[in-house]
Amino acid sequence: MNTAQSNTASQSDFIREIIDDDLKTGKHEGRIATRFPPEPNGYIHIGHAKSVCLNFGIAARYGGTCNLRLDDTDPSGESLEYVDSIKDNIHWLGFDWGDRLFFASDYFERLYQFACELIKMGKAYVCSLNADEIREYRGNFTEPGKESPYRSRSIEENLELFTRMRAGEFEDGAHVLRAKIDMSSPNIVMRDPVIYRIKREPHYRTGAKWVIYPMYDFAHCLSDALEGITHSICTLEFENNRPLYDWIVEQLIESHRPQQIEFARLNLSYTVLSKRMLIELVEEGYVKGWDDPRMPTVAGMRRRGYTPRAIRNFCAVIGVAKNENLVDISVLEHCVREDLNETAPRAMAVLKPLRVVIDNYPEGKSEEFECANHPQKPEMGMRTVPFSRILYIEQDDFQENPPGKYKRLAPGQEVRLRNSYVIRYESIVKDQKSGEIVEVHCTYDAETRNGPPPDGRKIKGVIHWVSAAHAIPAEIRIYDRLFRVPDPAGESGDFKDYLNPDSLEVLSPCYLEPSFKDAVPGNAYQFERLGYFCADSGDFLPDRPVFNRIVALRESWVKNS
Ligand code: ATP
Ligand code: MG
What we know:
By secondary structure, the chain is α/β, with parallel strands linked by helices. The chain has three domains: about 5-265, 3-Layer(aba) Sandwich (Rossmann fold); about 275-345 and about 475-550, CATH 2.40.240.10; about 350-465, CATH 2.40.240.10. The chain contains twelve helices and 27 strands. It has helices at about 15-25, 45-60, 80-95, 110-120, 130-140, 155-165, 215-225, 240-250, 275-285, 300-305, 310-320, 330-345; strands spanning about 35, 65-70, 100-105, 125, 175-180, 195-200, 210-215, 230-235, 260-265, 265-270, 325, 345, 350, 355-360, 365-370, 380-390, 390-395, 415, 420-430, 435-445, 460-465, 465, 470-480, 505-510, 525, 530-535, 545-550. Helix 3 (about 80-95) links the parallel strand 2 (about 65-70) and strand 3 (about 100-105). Helix 7 packs across helix 8 and helix 11 packs across helix 12 (about 330-345). The longest helix is centred in the first third of the chain and has 16 residues, at about 45-60. The radius of gyration is 31 Å and the shape is elongated. Adenosine-5'-triphosphate binds near residues 50, 235, 265 and 266. Adenosine-5'-triphosphate (ATP) binds near residues 37, 38, 50, 235 and 266.
């Protein structure tokens, strides 16, 4: 399948089947409303991108709506910086929520009122056990729970205590509000779950106004209901919470009840997708920030040079299912390569330079070659590439004692310079002390300017090059996988022990052909024979260009299992 041609609109999966059925039976009066509900306590990553593509993709396919809701009901770790980054990265992925931006924190008053209603119905109570006791009373899979001694408080007492909790009269942990459901339910989630807690911590939006905060299970379903969400799509770990979701909604919402549907989260090999772990990598300096090109964040992939289309195609290719699995990161890299192959102009750059002197080419002379920017796309235009007496080639493209079948430059051999002449080896100059090769001397065949040698001899190899007099020096950063094992979070011990020590290699000076003078941060190219590279959006300066390697031309990772 050509992933570039697939798109979310034509796809089907079990969620779209549920929606198709709902449309047939007239559930939700034919309305489709989804939401993407990130907590602003970190940058979004490729797993979130899967959820973004799913929720916005469904809205687009069915002519429905998709809200962006910041699920900001826990003040710890939430911030405006994260809100801004989330909005920016969703836009970059190609999705738009229009005027449908919401914050769960805007519902604090209404959620409080809902909680009061539950108390008045006799379905919630203030519990004064501490956290350890609550856990102990809850029981486990084999043992039913025990009822809290505070379960029988009167409605009046509960209302009074809850009002005083809100007023800030108690310390953190002194009391909680719990739903009164069933302490012997086989589903532990239903054993009188905590729905409000005291937390005297300022909130990035509501400041010190609130000292009690609703728990996820209480806030999420009611936020969905308040926004008229029809299909509340979340990851599998919430499957056990669905009865609670439904219970709360049934108690408090008369009509237009939302429906929770769970799908398997994305797990990607050689990376971690837990916000807690990603925060650790950033805060402890293992990477250079949330947008470090090695990070699986949208910001990191964007800086690395991954394209929104490649990421959307990846999400379409992996699809949505009910079973968790580990998707190989090479699938993502394949989608990136496939997209860039279509769109990235070609150009020449030398990463590990070796000087080549063309002995029979006059000093001071230069000439220009017209080169296509894309071999299959004439509409992408041409550029001129200068040639002169001194060139750079890759160190790898010359070998003094080559193995058999070596097709590049070597003693006694000829090679084609891409887009230019055929050259023949003459001699080498070595550093007297180190024995390192510092210069290769060659001669060129003037008759090969526009084609193969007229005498019919075969030239097997083609190498890339840059004219030294015209070259632009640059720094090039070669990225590899951040971890050296497929499932770092699943290994024993600290996941950081499995970081790949060679995930970043900085090469400088590298030499670029002069057409790169027009490069601006974000531009992506195929460096011929090397891979796809992107002008870095953080450190690029016109007089000191920095490029990131997005992905090699081919899958080259050798699994060290
Ligand atoms: P936390 O561990 O802090 O709960 P989270 O990754 O679940 O982190 P949220 O901000 O709650 O973060 O996630 C927003 C939405 O993205 C949720 O609907 C969640 O189900 C979805 N999501 C998060 N991680 C993945 C993943 N790996 N694959 C698919 N969807 C994901
Ligand atoms: Mg979450």
